[in-house]
TrEMBL record, chain A:
The gene is Mrpl3. It is found in: Mitochondrion. One of its GO terms (biological process) is translation. It comes from the Eukaryota. This is Large ribosomal subunit protein uL3m. Keywords: Mitochondrion, Ribonucleoprotein, Ribosomal protein, Transit peptide. Its main location: mitochondrion.
Automatic annotation (TrEMBL), chain B:
The gene is Mrpl19. This is Large ribosomal subunit protein bL19m. It comes from Rostratula benghalensis. GO terms for molecular function: structural constituent of ribosome. Keywords: Mitochondrion, Ribonucleoprotein, Ribosomal protein, Transit peptide. It is found in: Mitochondrion.
Amino acid sequence: MMPIWTKSGKKHAVTLLKVQDCHVLRYISKEESGGKTSKLLVGGKNASPFFKSESAMEIFKEAGVPRKQKVSTFNVTDDAIIKPGTPLYAAHFRPGQFVDVTAKTIGKGFQGVMKRWGFKGQPASHGQTKTHRRPGAISTNKAAKVYPGKKMPGKMGNIYRTSYGLKVWRINTKHDIIYVNGSVPGHTNCLVKVKDSQLPTCKDCNKNPPFPTFFADGDEKLPEDLYDDEVFQFTDPSVTYA
Amino acid sequence: CRVSSDGKPEKFQPPPKPVIIDKQKQREERRFLSPEFIPPRGRTDPFKYYIERKDMIQRRRVFNIPEFYVGHVLAVTTADPYASEKSSRFVGICIQRGGKGLGATFVLRNVIEDQGVEICYELYNPRIQAIEVLKLEKRLDDNLMYLRDALPEYSTFDVNMKPVSRLDDEEVPVNKLQVRMKPKPWSKRWERPKYNIKGIKFELPESKMKEAQKWSQPWLEFDMMREYDTSKLEDKIWREVSEGLKN
């Protein structure tokens, strides 16, 4: 995480996400998947091909791509289908658009009810016997049972969570880095899924996205760094208020 | 040639060889790498620090951040939207330098009209318009937070102080000043060995000083897990930074 300053002098905290060897692996049509839209399987970071069975490696062989550590699905409309085997770059996103980031949260192991659900616990003194971090009552008398889904101690973390509506401030096309506003679930150097935002307020934010994606061998030559309009670039002189 | 009292010419004495002090070489040997360039120990990818350093070097090319240590007296002008001239100037002694990378900060302290004021500035904040070093002197400690409990005369600096002229010498002078403190209670127990402060003149009785030594942890200096050897990293980073700033 890094600070980034706007032209008006405000500071925002930014998370750096690196797009590392992403390739499209397979196209699944609407009828095949049984959903509302067709799907594209996308694979992430490269990994060693030796520790997986032959059947698992089939997908990668078809696409002609080294084995990927993480494979995720994206729901796509029919006009945005990409041929399997195309590499995906950070320039697929543009500064100023909003993005949802999904990742597995940091695993905390088996945790008690105060850390996991934020219960208040009991006082430390004034006669409490062996009861300081316990849940207390778990149900009423009339119910005569404990409702399913009752908040109780258990394994915390290591589940998929999404942070919605994160603004993209800057993109580095040379090293494939996306600078995303705020914090993102997951530990440092964990694998993360970045999607266009589905929030209703962010529908019109992206004016000219590269559609269906940014092709590196195409005619478009992008500069090394793409900034949002409001971001203070370090090549400019210091900010002054007129 | 000289003629001695005998009348015969004396044996030719060659003049003493001149000692050439190569000042350029001496200057090159002294390197200063700002402490925020050195990455902390952790599990982050060093590539992230490389990207951050590129930004820091870019900012330093446009805006000059002078070399300064804790104990220097600095004057900082920032852009302020609410000030009458849209800029505000603050003079103070640097008591602490914290943070790594772009978020590096330094705290300046001064006593203005009997009120102690500390302002924490970010080195790479674009609103800072100028940083001038008014007085160069290093102190005995890295962290001068104890000035809060010292007599106010040690933290007062004239706001219209002129920069003290100084030749481009090699060494930054170290001020071995021993500061006198206000009566206890202090904000932190500065006599305890964990702060390792050398710049205070403790006027406490011997029994209190001995009691403070009870909290000493003499095994810490031999702890191998706490060792962080940054010499090779510093070399590499120094070369990178000097290459970037040359252009």
